[in-house]
Each structure stands twice: as structure tokens, then as C-alpha cells.
Specification:
Keywords: Phosphoprotein. The chain is an alpha/beta fold and about 190 residues long. It is built from seven helices and five strands; from the N terminus they run βαβαβαβαβααα. It folds into two domains: about 100 residues, Rossmann fold, CATH 3.40.50; about 60 residues, Winged helix-like DNA-binding domain superfamily/Winged helix DNA-binding domain (Arc Repressor Mutant, subunit A), CATH 1.10.10.10. About 60% of the residues lie in helices and about 15% in strands.
Length: about 190
């Protein structure tokens, strides 16, 4: 497992590193510079990112939230003090675990596990949402193509659908692809 630890303090980063000792041969990368942080993380390609920010200013938090939004990885963020706005912003930025005053060696591994599980759960929900939206968009395109066929050929809805289905089967394509072609052709013809 590749783990990136982001912390400007080497002492705090070592606490996190010590907390990861029970993992089976983790590849740990400690990043202490904020300049070019996203590029550094992308070059490493970590499985998880652990950020210890201590008591960050608003600008520093916003900078790290921008990094969080750009990464599609589990992220655990450690801070010293609770802040409702920062918690809300961290959730919006995709932080999997926002830990207040929790930087201790014995808590690192359970928090890492939590961050990974929350990230995976959210990723599954996002995938399901994307699939549902895709199916809905396909259904709308098919319905639109049926309406075009019904209007132009004066056929019933079942007949229009059967025509789309026949064409899809004969051309070895999905009905949604045929429907998209019908809609596009209709738009090009200006009907």
C-alpha cells in the first residue's frame, strides 16, 4: 500500500508514520512542501493520503481542500481544533475522515481503515448514481426517438419502439445508440 503523508512538521509526520508500523510493508512518502503538492502526489500515486494540518489558517485549509477535490483517493485530514465551516468544506472536498485532535500513534491505523471504507462506500454510491443518470439519459433519448418516429411515420409507440429495436438488432448496436442517431438526424434535418 502506498501512503502519502502530508505534513510540514517532521515530528508530527513521524507520529503518523509510527502509527502505520503495523501495516504489512507500506510504501510511505512524506511530503513537507506545499509548493507543487498536487504534482508530487500524482507522481507518487498513493492509495491513501494522510494530511496533518495542525492548526491551519483559512488559506492553508482552502489550498488543501483544492488538492482533496482533485484527488480520487481516500483522504484522512488531521487538525487540532474543530471548525464547522472547515468540516463542511472538507466533506464537500471529498475528505473521507476529518479528525479533530486525534493525532496519536494508536489511532492512525483505525482512522486509515475508516477513511478507506468511507471512500469506497462513497465511490460505490457515486458509481451507482452515474449509472442511474446514464440510464435515465438513455431512456429520455429513446423516448425522444420514439416520438420522432411516431410523428414522422404516423406509427404507434409500440411500433416505433419495435422499429428502433429491429434496427439495433440488425446493426448489432444498442437501442440507445440507434435512438441517439435518430435524434441527431432529426436535429440535422431541422424537422
Amino acid at each position: 500500500m502506498k501512503i502519502a503523508i502530508i505534513d510540514e512538521s517532521a515530528a508530527r509526520a513521524s507520529i503518523i508514520e509510527d502509527g502505520l508500523a503495523e501495516l504489512d510493508s507500506p510504501e510511505i512518502h512524506i511530503l513537507t512542501q506545499r509548493q507543487g503538492l498536487l504534482a508530487q502526489i500524482e507522481a507518487i500515486g498513493p492509495d491513501i493520503v494522510l494530511m496533518d494540518l495542525g492548526n491551519p489558517s483559512r488559506d492553508v485549509l482552502e489550498e488543501y481542500f483544492a488538492v482533496s477535490r482533485a484527488l480520487a483517493r481516500p483522504i484522512a485530514m488531521f487538525v487540532d481544533e474543530s471548525d464547522d465551516e472547515a468540516i463542511t468544506a472538507s466533506i464537500d472536498a471529498g475528505v473521507s475522515a476529518y479528525v479533530v485532535d486525534g493525532l496519536s500513534k494508536n489511532r492512525i491505523k483505525p482512522l486509515l481503515d475508516l477513511a478507506v471504507k468511507r471512500f469506497n462506500a462513497f465511490a460505490r454510491l457515486q458509481k451507482d448514481l452515474n449509472e442511474a443518470q446514464g440510464k435515465l439519459a438513455e431512456r429520455e433519448t429513446i423516448d425522444r426517438a420514439k416520438r420522432i418516429l411516431m410523428d414522422s411515420r404516423k406509427v404507434s409507440e409500440p411500433e416505433a419502439y419495435a422499429e428502433l429495436r429491429r434496427k439495433a438488432m440488425s446493426s448489432n448496436r444498442r437501442i440507445a445508440e440507434i435512438a441517439e442517431a435518430v435524434v441527431t438526424a432529426h436535429e440535422l434535418m431541422g424537422d
